[in-house]
Design brief:
With about 70 residues, the chain is an all-alpha fold. It has a domain at about 30-65. It is about 75% helix and about 0% strand. The chain has two helices and no strands. The protein has helices at about 10-35, 40-65. Helix 1 (about 10-35) runs antiparallel to helix 2. The longest helix has 25 residues, at about 10-35.
Amino acid sequence: MNTPRHRRTVDVREVVTATAALLVFLVCVTVVIVNQQTVGWVNFLAMLAGLGGLIVMLALYNRRFR
């Protein structure tokens, strides 16, 4: 007999969240890499902001899998 197959549904919220997280990650890494090549307080603060963003992302990821 033919049994109905279970269809996988795509959760739109998960896709949007993952896309936003990837975008934030790429922006933070780009900020750190670009500002690492120059010297100055402004660039240092931008690098700290990028690093802070990465740490916040890591904390949110770890919080979900506690």
